[in-house]
Amino acid sequence: MATSEKKGFTATLYFFLLTTMCLVGEFPLKAVAGNAAPLLQRYEDGNEHGYSRAFNAIYDTSKYGILQLQNGLARTPPMGWNSWNFFACNINETVIKETADALISTGLANLGYTYVNIDDCWSKVTRDAKAGSKIANSLLCKTKMLLQGQMVPDPKTFNSGIKALADYVHSKGLKLGIYSDAGKFTCQVRPGSIFHEKEDAMSFASWDVDYLKYDNCFNLGIEPKKRYPPMRDALNATGRSIFYSICEWGVDDPALWAGKVGNSWRTTEDINDTWVR
Ligand SMILES: *[C@@H]1O[C@H](CO)[C@@H](O)[C@H](O)[C@H]1NC(C)=O
Ligand SMILES: *[C@@H]1O[C@H](CO)[C@@H](O)[C@H](O)[C@H]1NC(C)=O
Ligand SMILES: *[C@@H]1O[C@H](CO)[C@@H](O)[C@H](O)[C@H]1NC(C)=O
């Protein structure tokens, strides 16, 4: 081929390729545009153009969460760690701190596992007697004192206090959870919060706690529907946003009544790392 012929051939080839590409490229675009415009139009105009209200409602998130407790939390499921399954009662502030560190170093925190939740056994077996010390003379009064007063962290295992632990956990960008019970005692026979909801919620809030798991032991036979709302109201009254996790083991069908009582509820007894349950 002569040079000019070569140039002509190359130009023809380019022209052919461009035309083909344009055709191939434009045909589907036109086809999509032809359908998409009325599709969008119909979506934007709602059911006037043939789509049912129910169909359009799929895209309407304005009422999301109206059946939930309105404390701004649990818009997505909470994720994190709880001390019970592995450590049971053998916990202390070191274990909690090390777990917070591990959530960071393993990368789990980055994936959303942000709650570090202390379960049963963090508190002293009796309430702080100071609140009742003025009436501390008779044996009756002494007994009463043990059942009144503030919940306090066990000085042997949480000597720095829960506030210091919350500060540590928060400094890592994580959240701290604590545990109590909608009964006279916790399952490990520490003070429970029934009839102490207000002062205990105040304690949790004053320690900057972010989450409360509220268990079901020693419940005096009072039905969950009656025992769980007072703590919801007490937490709310503190003004601090505290995730409220109802743990009545699913015994009274919480799915039927707990939506506006707690941020979450448990549906079974304890699970463990087997496939049995
Ligand atoms: C804290 O608890 C862990 C786990 O049970 C235990 O291994 C450790 O010895 C405890 N530390 C102290 C100081 O008690
Ligand atoms: C308390 O409850 C009200 C009413 O549901 C809600 O608007 C408010 O955000 C709650 N406050 C806290 C701290 O949970
Ligand atoms: C796990 O739970 C199942 C069902 O309750 C029980 O049979 C089993 O003993 C438990 N295993 C452990 C290791 O706790």
Can you describe what's shown?
- It is a single chain.
- Helix content is 39%, strand content 9%.
- The protein contains nine helices and six strands.
- It has helices at residues 3-45, 53-57, 84-87, 93-105, 139-147, 162-171, 197-206, 224-227, 229-238; strands at residues 80-82, 115-117, 175-181, 211-215, 243-246, 264-265.
- It has a six-stranded parallel sheet.
- Helix 7 (197-206) packs across helix 9.
- The longest helix is centred in the N-terminal third of the chain and has 43 residues, at 3-45.
- It starts with a helix and ends in a 12-residue tail after the last strand.
- Residues 1-33 and 131-136 have low confidence and may be disordered.
- Bound molecules: 2-acetamido-2-deoxy-beta-D-glucopyranose (3 copies).
